[in-house]
Every structure is written in structure tokens, then in C-alpha cells.
Amino acid sequence: MPSLIDLLRSRLVTLLPSELKTSELPHLLTPIRHPMLLCQRRAMLIVDRVRLFAFLFAVLTPLWSIIDLMVFDTPLWLRLAGFRLMACLAFTWLLLFYRPSGNLLDAYRAIAILFAIPTVFYIASHTLLGTYQLAQFSAVVGAGYAFLPFVLMAGLTIFPLTLIESVVLGLLLLLAQALAGYLSWATLNWPSFAGAFWLLILIAGVASLAGMSQLAFMIALVRQAIRDPLTGIFSRGSGEEILRLQWDSAQRNNSPLALAFIDLDHFKAINDNHGHEAGDAVLRDAARSLLNTLRGSDSLVRWGGEEFLLIMPDTDMQQAHRALARLVGNGLGVRPDGQPLTASIGLSERQADASLDHRQLLELADHRMYLAKSAGRNRLHGHAGCYVPQGGLAGLEG
């Protein structure tokens, strides 16, 4: 009998895009271990939507003062207008000076600022209105201020968020609502407050599902955009983006970054003698063999044809050499005639080679790969020269 968790997982899958893989379901629950490019593109989308939200609030917040002027007396209107002006200036600052950086922490900061501004405005205005005796139409307009938490909670639906992120933001809005109730404890209408609080919880649940649904579509679209359709590893375009991001990170942290250009030996002969389907099968097997040897932080890219680029962050020249020795020792697969598949490898490293930028590092690895091919193939050319992998590259320096 399937467990309750398995049953819930199977039901959840039916609600998600068909393109989403079962292994990707944890990505909907927590942002931990999201692929780098997914984090970057999600962060940029979140900040873009924060700025859109800020634009709407920057325009609409001061316009509402016209209605306040029509129904409230001058002292109350002036104080509310002051709150609105400060909120408008904060939204304008967020719109003009916050730009997408691709950093998820920056995106969290942007969304926190976005929701903090109207939350503070809501608590301040709610407390202020509670000190006035409102009647007739002014009481109706004053009651409209109580809908702001619902607008904010519904606004969560426009962001591609994981379940944990949605829950955290929803809880913060619920705490703000509870704080507003505490500050107006003496005049609080408990049945109305409890009903509103329950409705906010329901909206939070819907917003969480909407955010997860957006994220599911985004995961599927990003995967399709960044993956090579034949081998399933990163495509060249996404590989260039990963390399740039890893270079920037290595420079910030003054950490090593190693690149290995891997070119399968005599691959053209496979296509010529056995056909392109056999060649495709060899490429898929080689990519699978490489992936099985890599660390979780490494990135494997199909650079073009039979060329692969291996990006190894936080890896110096000796560590990269040992990793490649393990890779070659485990084998890259077999050719259609049963012979082992070999490769010519060029290795470069940011610190050892004193590279000025990621392009220079890439060109150096590419150049050394061609030197390995010129020296007879089935070789690694690193910082200290070219070596023949006899029984793997273990024990060699370079």
C-alpha cells in the first residue's frame, strides 16, 4: 500500500506542468540546491516584478489622497497624506535605484523592502484611524484601509516562489495584521478581525500554490533553454553564462577556478564509419560517464560537436589534475568497435595561469587541448606540460 506521502506526491504531480520531472519536485519546496542559472533568472524576474509592483504603488498611493481629502477632516487628512508621501517616496526609490543583479539574496531584499513599505503604512494608518471617531462615508473609506493586507497577500501570486519562501512572507504579513489588531485592542471588533484573519490565511494558501505553479513552469522552461537536447548537459550558451558567474564569484572570493577542455579523439571516424546515430550514442555515453565522476558544484557543458567544457569552481591545478585522473581512470565509454574512448584534454586555472578574465582562461584551456591533440591525442596538457594518461592520469603533476 502506498504511503500517504507517496499519494500526496502523485497528486501534486498531476497539478504541475507535464514537462516537470519528478526529481525537480524538491525545487518547489525549498530554494536550497537550485541550479545556478535557475537562481539567477528567478532572482532577476523577482526584482523586475518588485519594480513593477513598486511602480503601481508609487502612482496609486498618492492618488488615494484625493478621496481622503473628500471625506476626512483636514488634520486627519494631513497626517494620512504625510504617511502616503513617505510611502510613495520609498516606492519611487525602489523603482529607480534597485536593479536586477541575478543574486537571489538581492531579490529577497527587494521583495522584503517592497512588502515592508505598505505594511508599515498599514500599521501606522490603522493605528491613526483607530483614534478618530468616523461616521457615515468617512467610516466606509476608513474601513477600506483594512483591505491593504489582502492586496499584499494576493500580490505574492505574481512571484515564482518556493513553498518555504511563500510561507515565510505570508507569516510576516499575518504577523503585521496581528500587530495592527494588538495596537487597536481597545476598539477591536473581534468577530470581524477573526474573519479577516482567516480569510488572509486562505489567500496565503492560494498565493503559495500560485507561486509554486509559476516556479514549476519556470523550472521547465529554464531547463529546456539551457540544456543540450542530445546529451542533457548544459548547452554552450548556458555554459558561457555559468563560466562568467563562476569567474565573478572566484574573483570576489579570491578562490581558484579550473577549466578543462575535453575533445573526444577521432570522433569523426565514428560518424564516417558507423553513422551519426552511433556517434550520438557515443556522445550521450561520454556525457553520462563524465557526469557520474563530477562533484555537485562542477558544471559540464557541451561546447560543440565532440567538445566538452568542464567548469570546476574552488579547484586549483593539482586538485583539477586529480579530478581528471579519476575521470579518465573511470573511462569515457567505448567506441562502436569496442575500443575504449579517449580524449585530448586542455587544463587551465585562474590563479596558476594568472588569467585576466574568463575569456583568457577559456582560450588557454582551448589552446592546450589543441596542443594535446598535436602531441598525439589521449593526453592532458596542463600548466606544466603534456602527459600521457597511462592507467589514468593519477600520479602525474600538471
How much of the polypeptide forms β-strand, as a percent range? Answer: 5-15%
Q: Order of strands across the biggest sheet?
A: 2-3-1-4-5-6
Counting copies of identical and different chains, the oligomeric state is single chain
Number of strands: 6
Give the termini separation. Answer: 56 Å
Shape: elongated
How many domains make up the 3D coordinates?
2
Helix and strand composition category:
alpha+beta
Q: Largest sheet, if any?
A: 6 strands, mixed
Short characterization:
It is built from 13 helices and six strands. The protein is of the alpha+beta class.
How does this structure look, described?
The chain is α+β, with helices and mostly antiparallel strands and 398 residues long. The chain has 2 domains: 215 residues, no CATH class; 152 residues, Reverse transcriptase/Diguanylate cyclase domain (Alpha-Beta Plaits). 62% of the residues lie in helices and 9% in strands. It has 13 helices and 6 strands. Strands 2-3-1-4-5-6 form a 6-stranded mixed β-sheet, sandwiched between helices. The radius of gyration is 29 Å and the shape is elongated. The C terminus is likely disordered.
